[in-house]
Amino acid sequence: MSVNKILVTGGAGFIGSNFINYLLANRDDVFVVNLDKLTYAGNLENLKPSENKKNYVFVKGDITNNELVDYVFNKYEIKYVINFAAESHVDRSILGSEVFYRTNVIGTNVLLEASRRYEIEKFIQVSTDEVYGSLGPEGLFTENSPLSPNSPYSSSKASADLMALAFFHTFGLPVVITRCSNNYGQYQFPEKLIPLMIINSLNNKKLPVYGDGLNVRDWIYVLDHNRAVETVLEKGKPGGIYNIGASREMRNIDIVKLILKKLNKPESLIEFVKDRPGHDRRYAIDSTKIKNELGWKPVYVFEDAISETIDWYIKNKVWWERIISGNYKEYYKTLYENR
Ligand code: NAD
Ligand code: DAU
C-alpha cells in the first residue's frame, strides 16, 4: 500500500485505539483520520502514543451525521474506511436498544453512502462472531454459518453486515467484512468481562458471574485482531467475509479464577448472579479462511498476553479510576444491584 488516507471510525474505543497506535507505530505510508463521537466508551487518553504524529488527525463527531461525514471524506480525500464505531456492549443493548440500531445500522449506512459518493478503494466493516448466534458443545462458526443473532447488539451488527454486502452486490462498493471473536487487552472499558473482573478483584469487590459461569468465549489478544484488520486492509477480497480468532476457548468461570489466582485474591470474591437474558452459550471461531487466503495467523500466546493485560491494569490505575468514578457508577448500579 502506498501513502493512503484511512478513515478509522470509533478510533477512541478499545479496539480502534489499539489499531491506530499499532498502525502508526509500524508504518509511515498511511494518514489516519479518527472520527469518534466520544461516547462513554471513547477515550482520547488511549491515543497518547499517536496524538502528536503528523500523519494522524482526530475529528470529534457522530457517524450518523451525514453532513459531517461528507465533510470528512471530502476534506481528507478518504480512500479507505475501517468502521470500528459502534455501541458494543450486549448488556447495555438489553437495557436500551435504540442507540444500538442508530449507530450500528444507520451510522454504517451513512458511511457506506459516503463511500459510494467518493468512490473509495476499500470499506472494512468490523463485525463480530456474535452475528452467528450461539453454539452447542461442538462445532465452530465458519463464514458460511447462518446469521442467527440473539441480542439487540448482535442483531444490529448482523443488519450492518447485510447492508454492507448489499452495497457490494448492488453498487460494486469494495466492502470486506471481518468477524472477530472476544478481544482482551489494554484500554478495554471495564464493562467487559476481563477488565471488570480485574478491577473488581483489585478493589476486593464481588465478581458477578452470570448464570452457572459455564458459557464459553473464544479469546483473542487485541493486537492479533489489529494485525488481522491490517492484513484485510491490504489483501482482503471485496465482497469477502473473514472470521478472526485465536482458537482459545475458555469458560467464564475459568477466566475469573485465573484472574483471581494471578492477583493472589480469594475465590470467595466470586458471586454467581442472575443470568444475562438470552445469554449465548458458546462461541468458537474457525479462522481457516483468513489463514489460508491472506496468510494471517495469531502470534500472541494467551498465557503471556493475559498476564500482560492484568499487569497493564495494575499499572494504569489512574486510567480506570477516572472511568469508574464517573457515570460508570450509575451503570454498575443499574445492571448489578439486586441482580
Ligand atoms: P468500544 O465500545 O470500546 O468503542 C466504540 C467506539 O465507538 C468508542 O470510541 C465510541 O465513542 C465510538 N462511537 C460509538 N458510537 C459512535 C457514533 N455514533 N459515531 C462515532 N463514534 C461512535 O468498542 P470495541 O470493543 O473497541 O469494539 C470496536 C468494534 O469491534 C465494534 O464495531 C464491535 O462491534 C467490534 N468487535 C468487538 C469485539 C470485542 O471483543 N470487543 C469483538 C469483535 C468485534
Ligand atoms: O464475541 C465478540 C463480542 O464479544 C463482541 O462483539 C462484543 O462487542 C463484546 O462485548 C463481546 O461480547 P460478550 O457478551 O461475549 O462479552 P462480555 O465481556 O460482555 O461477556 C463475556 C462473557 O462473560 C459472557 O458470557 C457474559 C459473561 N459476563 C460478563 C460480564 C460483564 C459475566 O459473567 N459477568 C459480567 O459481569
What does this structure look like?
The chain is built from twelve helices and twelve strands. The protein is of the alpha/beta class. It has two domains: 205 residues, Rossmann fold (3-Layer(aba) Sandwich); 96 residues, Alpha-Beta Complex (UDP-galactose 4-epimerase, domain 1), CATH 3.90.25.10. The strands form three sheets. It has a seven-stranded parallel β-sheet, sandwiched between helices. The protein has a three-stranded mixed β-sheet with strand order 7-9-11. A two-stranded parallel ribbon has the order 8-12. β1, α1 and β2 form a beta-alpha-beta unit. α2 runs parallel beside α4, α4 packs parallel to α5 and α6 packs parallel to α8. It is globular. The chain starts with a strand and ends with a helix. Nicotinamide-adenine-dinucleotide binds next to α1, α4, β5 and β7.
